[in-house]
Structure formats: structure tokens, C-alpha cells
Amino acid sequence: MIPFTKAHACGNDFLIVAEDDLAGHDPSSLAIALCDRNTGIGADGVEYFSWQNQDAALGPLSARIRLFNADGSLAEISGNGTRCVAAWMAHEASAQPGDELTLTTDAGPRFSKLVELRTSGSPTALITTNMDTPDWEPRVVELSDGSRLDGISVSMGNPHFVLLVSNPPLPDGSLDFSLDGRPWQEIGEEICFHPDFPEQTNVEFIQRLASPRNQPDQVALRIFERGVGPTHSSGTGTSAAATAMIAAFGSSSTIEIFAPGGMQSVHWPGDSSPLLLTGPATLIARGEAWLATTNG
Fold first, then answer.
1. 50-90 residue pLDDT tens
2. What is the CATH number of domain 135-273?
3. Contact indicator for 61, 100 with CB cutoff of 8 Å
């Protein structure tokens, strides 16, 4: 039996499994089995977790996490996955607004602060995470049909390629993220597995929105996530999209990013300053899974 907690951040869902409960299971095979939406629990990835400090009286709550995607691949970090774990830690340790949490990922430590914790219904935390300083540069990718796409390559501790789309709305009023008549999902998949990205890459498609007066700039986002495919949300993808907008496309330092799963806000003054990502995470369920066949 494998105990788990399930959580989501703007529809990007993760399972939290204690390292001590692996019990000889291969973490990659177990992630594939647990994340299957028909024969498993269903999730975009598994965060394997171990406490480092569980007592807020002794200092910031802290833990070590490892992320395996739904396809079993090891990822450096997920912003939403990290926030889901932080929300679970806050709930388990009865944290209070203002408390700090440190999560060590394969992309390095990420420092979070609990802004709000709602305990009625499904526990939901609003959390601000220091996502470190992004690296970015303009980059051109040539597709198999010979077309060339100008984008922004961004590292948030994991790789991203961001494309600015400027299509008019579709007849039904919905946003159109296609490029040269090809669906964004199709282009996202080709870029994700492009030879220019030997470790694969996450791909983000962004559109400017008409922002209300005296409000932060607003951007719509679609995501093709490495190891997952099209997904409702991504914390690092949101951060990468904001980086591209602020650094390359003239946005203000505070920006709201709307993905299908919901809105997250980013503040980044640029240069060597850390990027701050704020968004919700909700605990959905906890239970145990029968998956003895995943032993390695």
C-alpha cells in the first residue's frame, strides 16, 4: 500500500508521497502507475517528500522533494508542484500566515511564504514563492516544415520556450493560440521534442489581454508541459511567460497570468532580482493505493 495526498494548483495536480513509503518501489515506475488517470489515482506528477524541519518553533518549515512527471521522467522542479507540497506542509504543521517554508528541489532551494490558509472545506493555501532569478535569451526554432519561430528561451531551473501569439479572437469570442494555421498543441509537441532541446523543453504560448485601467498587465497562457503534454497550469511556465513579457515584450514588473486552470500573479523587477510567484494550492484527498507490481 502506498499512502498519498493529492493536491492541485490551478488544476495542475500532483500526488505527494513520502520517501519513507517508497518501500523498495522504483520512483519512476511508481509515478507512471499512480499518475495514470484510468488505472491509477491520476495526476500530472508525483512529489516524493521528506521532512527536514516539521516544527515552526525551530525555524522555517523545510523539506526535500523530488518530482517525477506522469511519464516517469525526473524533472528539476515544478512551481505548482512545489506550492502544492508547501500547502500540505502548512496544513500538517498548522502554519500561520507569514510563516516561511523552504523546499529543496533538484533546481535548488525555493523559499515560500504562507499568505493565507483556508481550512473550511478543502484546505487551500495562498502562497508566494521565490522562484530565483530567471535566465532568458531570444531564440529561433526551425520546425520540420521549414518555418522559423522567434521565441524567448527561459530557464526557471528547468527549460522553457515562450512564444508570443497575436491572433484575433475566434468567431465564438475565444482566444486563438494557433500559429500558421497549426494548433498550439501540435506546435508545442514538436518544439518540446525538437533536436535543439536534447533534454526536451516546456513550451508556453502567450497573448496580451486588455488590462483594466490602473491594474497589473494581464496575459493569457497555454502550456505544453514536458513529460505531461497540454496542461491546465504551470508555476514555472507562468514564471517563464512573465519573464518573457517583462524582459522582452515591455510588460510592467507586476503581471497577472491567466491559464485555463486559473490566475497566478508574478512580480519581477528584472535583472538579478528574484521572481516572486503567488497563487493558490488546494488539498483534494488522501488515501492509499494498491500498486505492488511497481517494485523494481
1. 999 998 888 899 999 999 999 999 999 999 999 999 999 99
2. 3.10.310.10
3. yes
Alpha helices, H only, 182-272: 184-192, 235-248
Q: What is the pTM (predicted TM-score) of this model?
A: 0.92
* CB of 131 closer than 8 Å to CB of 156: yes
Residue 66 CA from chain centroid, whole number: 14
Residue extent(s) of CATH 3.10.310.10 domains in the chain: 2-131+281-294, 135-273
Task: Give tens-digit pLDDT for 178-230.
Answer: 998 999 999 999 999 999 999 999 999 999 998 788 889 999 999 999 999 99
What is the mean pLDDT of the segment spanning 234-262? 96
Outline where DSSP puts E strands in the chain.
2-9, 12-18, 45-53, 61-69, 74-75, 100-105, 108-118, 124-130, 135-142, 148-155, 159-164, 202-208, 217-225, 229-231, 254-259, 262-267, 276-289
List the grid coordinates of 171.
468567431
CA distance 153 to 159: 8
Question: Could you tell me the end-to-end alpha-carbon distance of the chain, in angstroms, rounded to an integer?
Answer: 15
Residue type, 181: G
Contact call for residues 74 and 106 (beta carbons, < 8 A): yes
Query: Bridge-partner residues for 40, per DSSP?
Result: none
Fold type of domain 2-131+281-294: Diaminopimelate Epimerase; Chain A, domain 1 (3.10.310)
